[in-house]
Amino acid sequence: MENLIDNGGTLPSQVERQNSSIPSVIVIGGGISGLAAARMLHEASFKVILLESRDRLGGRIHTDYSFGYPVDLGASWLHGVCNENPLAPLIRGLGLKLYRTSGDNSVLYDHDLESYTLFDKEGHQVPQQMVIEVGDTFKRILEETEKVRDEHTDDMSVLQAIWIVLDKHPELRQEGLAYEVLQWYICRMEAWFAADADMISLKSWDQEQVLSGGHGLMVQGYDPIIKALAKDVDIKLNHRVTKISNGPNKVMVTVEDGTGFIADAAIITVPLGILKANLIHFEPKLPQWKVDAISDLGFGCENKIALQFDQVFWPDLELLGIVAPTSYACGYFLNLHKATGHPVLVYMAAGRFAYDLEKLSDESAAKFVMLQLKKMFPNATEPVQYLVTRWGTDPNSLGCYSYDLVGKPEDSYERLRAPLGNLFFGGEAVSMEDHQGSVHGAYAAGIMAAESCQRHLLERLGYFDNLHLVPSRGAIHDATFPLQISRM
Ligand SMILES: Cc1cc2nc3c(=O)[nH]c(=O)nc-3n(C[C@H](O)[C@H](O)[C@H](O)COP(=O)(O)OP(=O)(O)OC[C@H]3O[C@@H](n4cnc5c(N)ncnc54)[C@H](O)[C@@H]3O)c2cc1C
């Protein structure tokens, strides 16, 4: 594919494709979805170019190496440690290790919660018996919310339903420290959706089809997968797309400096946050049903503060939680030492609190979490280094992952996914079977968008004779090694 327009953004009088016999596709976004799409089309002998706004690949997968070893600042879990996971062939082929944090029996809000301890704001440990009992009560409350759902035709938030249940069942209400533990469970649930409980749809929150095998941390980080997918693909970093002109036979994609790219089709995989903020101008305008789908879906936020220490001063547990009178004020640290052997704790915050954390400087954010840690462990040392994420204000993501807002129309995801002529939609938010918000969902959505685009172009251009519809997947996909899982 030729880079046909230099600055100015207008078509030159003579537009020629370098090799008119090969269909061409522009993939927008170099996260796992865009890379999966680009790789598949590349392997199917299409001419592909991938435009990525950042100076790095991976998007919401961001494995940082500044501590001297990999630390995932975006996605870190594989949700569904099983061979049915679309990422399993890649993980096996690359020989990547997984540390399983919970098994098949885990529910959405305790996917990383098999060994943990909770502390109150003063740093006193919450009796484990209370944690278990309140956990059981929370499960009962959620079971009762199913009845609330059945009794109401209109959707409401999960939080509203919890209050209705507690009104009806005073025996499920908690007081004092137990109330704070209940808030902590709500905080954990909010972390799964990266949104507050008053925003999450009661109708949809538990409709997700979680893959089997439980949840596992990628011990070497997600980065090797990104590198493997990117190999040999024509990638242009620092190319922020600002305009997409979708014509009957061609798509023209314009980047920030005015340079234009033309191809037979394009696949857009930018985060939902970017579409919501209208950072890309579409010509013609997106139809109203597509605009509605973009606004009807939620896009939450989660942030991480990774702290590297010179020694381990905390117990050998996976999670250290802090309870408080509101879910907003609760928190928790993931102990990476358990999975990787490195002395790192990762503080995780979701929803409004995650956005509020972004208002602090990195130094203040690190100080804030260190204060909490020092209450729990008065002998805590200062971190050697720290990393603070800002996914909510990062202009390349404007949030973390999609979730179901209260009152979301049932077909929102289908409408978001639906192609428009030569323009196809990939990315986490369009994934099938409710795998939105995950890495494997984003990957599968990229493959699906590439397959639709491929079929469309082969039909439109009549190239069935010399191109394969099913691509050869290459050595990394063909390997038959088992998944390497520690802590079975
Ligand atoms: C903090 C955090 C924790 C998470 N934890 C997990 C987890 O443990 N497990 C899990 O399965 N999932 C997790 N997720 C979700 C998972 O990371 C995403 O679902 C997935 O990585 C999304 O991939 P994607 O390719 O759809 O989007 P992205 O990775 O966001 O890729 C889109 C790309 O488009 C680029 N872009 C944006 N605007 C433009 C533009 N105008 N022009 C060109 N390029 C543009 C972006 O820079 C980005 O590289 C987490 C996400 C976050 C942020």
UniProtKB/TrEMBL annotation:
Binding residues for FAD: 33
Domain Amine oxidase: 32-451
Pfam families: Amino_oxidase
GO biological process: polyamine catabolic process
SUPFAM superfamilies linked: FAD-linked reductases, C-terminal domain, FAD/NAD(P)-binding domain
Molecular-function GO term, any one: polyamine oxidase activity
Official protein name in the record: Probable polyamine oxidase 4 isoform X1
